[in-house]
Amino acid sequence: MPGRTGRVFSGLLLAALTAVCTMPAAAGAAADGTTAGSVPSVGTAWGQPGPYEVDVDIEAVHTFYYPRDMGRSGERHPVVIWGNGTGAVPGFYSSLLRHWASHGLIVVAANTPASNFALSMRAGIDVLEHRDADSASRFHGKVDLDHIASAGHSQGGAAAVNAAVDPRVDAALPIQPGPLTDPDLMDEPVFYLAGQRDLTVWPALVKALYRDSDHVPAVYGEVRGAGHLDSIGDGGDFRAPTTAWLRFWLLGDENARGMFFGPGCGYCVDGDLWSGWERNSRALQIPVPTA
Fold first, then answer.
1. Cα(first)–Cα(last) distance of the chain, in Å?
2. DSSP 11-55
3. Which of 50, 194, 264, 287 could form a disulfide linkage to 103, CB 3.0–4.6 angstroms apart?
4. Which is it for the CA torsion 209, 214, 216, 218, positive or negative?
5. Per-residue pLDDT reduced to its tens digit, 9-42
6. How far apart are the C-alpha atoms of 153 and 82, rounded to whole Å?
7. CA-CA distance, 135 to 168, in Å (whole number)?
8. In angstroms, rounded to a whole number, what is the distance separating the alpha carbons of residues 11 and 5?
9. What are the pLDDT digits (tens) for 221-240?
10. Which residues 6+ apart lie within 8 Å of 247 measured at CB?
């Protein structure tokens, strides 16, 4: 792996990083779903379909999953850029990506089956920036470009970390990520997901990436009984926790905060879901829910 270059700046950035990482999106949604111009609350039903119907556009470079009635109450929708596993295309994960879109997120998935360098993923942000500014686009004025997450599976999981070097990315979600990445180059909060029975990307490899992320708030979750392909399709047992993570960091969902942070957090005590669960010292500094 490359040298630990991100550490050079960690002391100078600590105060600013802590402030940014403990104050997720305010513009996306209120936790109670009552504020005009916000994405509605779903309580704690992150594994269930969200309040939006979903449309899908398959284009040459990207596939877009997004709420059919974007901005119906004046809200803007945060963005998730997605990277596929080796040899895969977005359709392999279509039900999971549709699920995130049903919760009010715009997912722009790179069509490439070789996403490791995250070039197409990051280009998805450029495309949405252009369309948000284009009065002729259905995305015009409806994209929340201030709140962006990178996510992906396997090779795309490594790409989710690689994409997070982009300063426009606010949080990362690597699912069973491959090893060709360097967490020291990113400065966003990150949720690493492993599968207990994954024989392709062993949990120990994912945990090594987690431990190398001690300069940012990092969480490690090992899904009990899961193999490497269990996140394909509708996401299986990965669906609810990934949705909660995205809703917290991109939509400011205080219900989701309580699943990850504070003593006795919801996922901390869910032994049926996890065969392994850890939070690093930076994650332990995230304030507990306010309500």
1. 42
2. HHHHHHHHHHHTS--SSS--TTS-STTSPPP-TT-TTS--SS-EE
3. 50
4. positive
5. 333 333 333 333 444 644 333 333 333 469 999 9
6. 8
7. 23
8. 13
9. 999 999 999 999 999 999 99
10. 29, 42, 46, 103, 253, 256
Domain locations in the chain as residue ranges = 49-284
Q: Angle, nearest 10°, between helix axes 155-163 and 119-133?
A: 60
pTM: 0.89
Report the Cα 84 to chain-centroid distance in Å.
14
pLDDT digits (tens, 9 = 90+) for 245-275: 999 999 999 999 999 999 889 999 999 999 9
Say which CATH class 49-284 falls into: alpha beta
The pLDDT assigned to 288 comes to: 84
Residue type present at position 22:
T
